Amino acid sequence: MSEIDETILDSNQISSTDKAGRPIPVTIPIALAPGVTVVYTTRLGGLSTGDFGNLNLGGKSGDDPEAVLSNRIALAEAVGARLSLVSQVHSGRAVDVDEAFEINTPFGFDVSGTRTGATAAEATGEPTEPTMPAEASAEATDAAPHVVEADGQVTAQTGVALGMFAADCLPVLFADPVSGVIGAAHCGRRGLERGVIQSTVDLMAAKGAKPENIVATLGPCICGDCYEVGDEIADTFVKRFPLTKTATRFGGAGIDIAEAARIDLAFAGVHRIVDSVPRIHAATEYLEEDAELAELCRTDGEGPAELSERIAAIRHSMCTLENPLWYSHRRAAKAGKRHEGRLLALIVRH
Ligand SMILES: [Zn+2]
């Protein structure tokens, strides 16, 4: 009897780790195409603390590298794939990770947030500075991490999860189930302006994908009602992406980056868009009772202390600023914070 009581007590504890202290990432999977899964990570189920709590996967904003590394290892195990991460720089550049993945670090091309990255940061004082590229030899693998700066990735391999960090920017995930080529793009305002969607689709096509076969989905991002940028930036953006200027709920001019992405997807010939919203919406409803999320809301200072109050205020469940499930740079900044965590949007073919 007491054993059963203990079990029940255990399951009710606010814990984002298992009994051995390993993180248990809370993720939202979406079946994008036959054999292809998209996974969105949340703030839940990791070892990060404070402003980064709990499942921060980004290594550039100052979180404890040990926590980030543990979170990434647990995520790779949960997804059942190797993670391919790149050093994102708001560019229009996409890379074919198949050209170099085998010789690389366990996480691809972004060593920030790993022990290696921490050492490199200490040495150079610049965590994002590319270090010496690794040569194609087995010895180089551990000695010289190969950092690649890009905002789009493609692969034709199975078991490699392409990941894009975000905390308001829009991740877009692509799959051509016929050729087996998958892709991921990090679409912030500047990346969109620089054509990251077109360059990702072009690179997929260079590997045998056909735009008409590509299925795409848009991940969580800050919505047009919340992304206030001011008239000057919005007027420039709207010249490139018609009808994307918004009037935000904060009173100033804003932009709708998801709408801009849809425009460029259409220009790139990608017309099969799978909506991630219903799945995210269902997950959000379910998490109304989540003890870990409730604790984050009580302690993060980024909105009302009561989770139910935050959930009730959500008008767009995909919006990173509105939904406490996600990390949001803008929400953290509004709360007076200087840094915040990053989610990962992943795509993998098994
Ligand atoms: Zn919003």
Give structural notes.
This protein has 350 residues and is an alpha/beta fold. It has helices spanning 2-12, 65-79, 115-124, 140-143, 189-193, 196-206, 231-240, 257-267, 277-286, 291-299, 307-313, 329-334; strands spanning 27-33, 36-41, 82-86, 94-96, 108-109, 152-155, 160-166, 170-176, 181-187, 215-218, 245-247, 253-255, 272-274, 343-349. It has a single domain, classed as 4-Layer Sandwich (CNF1/YfiH-like putative cysteine hydrolases), CATH 3.60.140. It has twelve helices and 14 strands. The strands form three sheets. Strands 1-2-14-7-3-5 form a six-stranded mixed β-sheet. The protein is globular and about 50 Å long. The termini are far apart. Mean pLDDT is 88; it is low at 1-13 and 118-141. Residues 223, 225-226, 316, 319, 321-322 line the site of zinc ion. Keywords: Copper, Hydrolase, Metal-binding, Transferase, Zinc. This is Copper oxidase. Belongs to the purine nucleoside phosphorylase YfiH/LACC1 family. GO terms for molecular function: copper ion binding; hydrolase activity; S-methyl-5-thioadenosine phosphorylase activity.
Secondary-structure blueprint:
Elements: H1 2-12, E1 27-33, E2 36-41, H2 65-79, E3 82-86, E4 94-96, E5 108-109, H3 115-124, H4 140-143, E6 152-155, E7 160-166, E8 170-176, E9 181-187, H5 189-193, H6 196-206, E10 215-218, H7 231-240, E11 245-247, E12 253-255, H8 257-267, E13 272-274, H9 277-286, H10 291-299, H11 307-313, H12 329-334, E14 343-349
Parallel strand pairs: 3-5, 3-7, 4-6, 10-13
Antiparallel strand pairs: 1-2, 2-14, 6-9, 7-14, 8-9, 8-10, 11-12
The protein binds zinc ion.
Zinc ion is lined by residues 223, 225-226, 316, 319, 321-322.
Protein name: Copper oxidase
Family: Belongs to the purine nucleoside phosphorylase YfiH/LACC1 family.
Pfam families: Cu-oxidase_4
